[in-house]
Design brief:
It contains six helices and 13 strands. It has about 240 residues and is of the alpha+beta class. It has two domains: about 110 residues, no CATH class; about 110 residues. A five-stranded mixed beta sheet has the order 10-11-9-13-12, with helices on one face. A four-stranded mixed beta sheet has the order 3-8-7-6, covered by helices on one side. Strand 6 and strand 7 form a beta hairpin. Helix 5 crosses helix 6. The chain binds zinc ion (2 copies). One zinc ion binds next to strand 2 and helix 2.
Length: about 240
């Protein structure tokens, strides 16, 4: 018995001592049969202000998982059973990047693993939320008022505290941004991009108040597309 008779070889290319899948070596299998396809290149839009990225029309937090999701949505794994797509590494600079991925699955009961590189073309843009904020768009005013003769220092400290709250909230809501700060007698007004953020903040600071939050609104514009007036809200908080 010679070793030749024992060795397994690929009938297509003749290479020996390789793991075979349905009788063929991995190279021949990948050449001939569409086991899977993943995009060679994907184009992504990233907001240069808030760093969110656009995924299927939605602006989501930039993450490796979101990048992998984009690669996955352009892929097909018809010839692979139990397929999985893993991210092994990401490198991104201003305009270009690469995703290193690993595809695993089974062919004819045999485990298979292949590595691939997906190149990224990055477009730095301004997302709709950020372009509204940069145009000093705001939906609501957070109005803080203090008792007469409250020391200025105390008012300023509260201002920083509230400002920090909106800043933290920007991660979930990019319009949670302080567009304008205006000090008045015994208090200040913060113009904020998002009404939802102001509502959240007033709920957060409610327990420090002397009175209940008072919300008023006025009409400042008209939305022709939706055929209704656009309101601006004022949340008054008395500390
Ligand atoms: Zn072969
Ligand atoms: Zn943005």
């Amino acid at each position: 018995m010679t070793s030749r008779s024992l060795s397994i070889f690929c009938p297509k290319c003749g290479s020996e001592n390789k793991k075979l899948f349905n009788g063929f070596c991995i190279e021949c299998l990948l050449k001939d049969k569409k086991l899977f396809s993943i995009p060679e290149k994907i184009e992504i839009e990233i907001c240069s202000r808030c760093n969110r990225m656009r995924v299927r029309g939605k602006w989501v937090a930039y993450s490796d998982t979101a990048l992998l999701g984009l690669a996955r949505s352009g892929s097909s794994f018809k010839g692979l059973e139990n397929h999985e797509l893993f991210l092994q590494g990401v490198e991104v600079n201003d305009k270009l990047g690469v995703l290193m991925v690993k595809i695993s699955g089974k062919v004819g009961g045999e485990e298979l693993e292949v590595e691939r590189i997906v190149s990224l073309r990055i477009f730095r843009v301004t997302c709709p939320s950020c372009s509204r904020v940069s145009g000093s768009y705001f939906e609501a005013i957070f109005q803080a008022r203090f008792e007469p003769k409250t020391p200025k220092k105390k008012i300023e400290e509260k201002m920083s505290e509230i400002h920090a709250f909106f800043k933290r909230n920007e991660e979930n809501d990019p319009l949670s941004r302080v567009v304008k700060i205006q000090f008045v007698n015994n208090g200040f007004d913060l113009s904020i991009g998002s009404k939802r953020a102001v509502k959240k903040a007033s709920g957060f600071f409610e327990k420090q108040l002397r009175e209940r939050v008072i919300v008023t609104s006025d009409i400042y514009s008209y939305d022709r597309n939706k055929g209704r007036p656009i309101k601006r809200y004022t949340f008054c908080l008395r500390f």
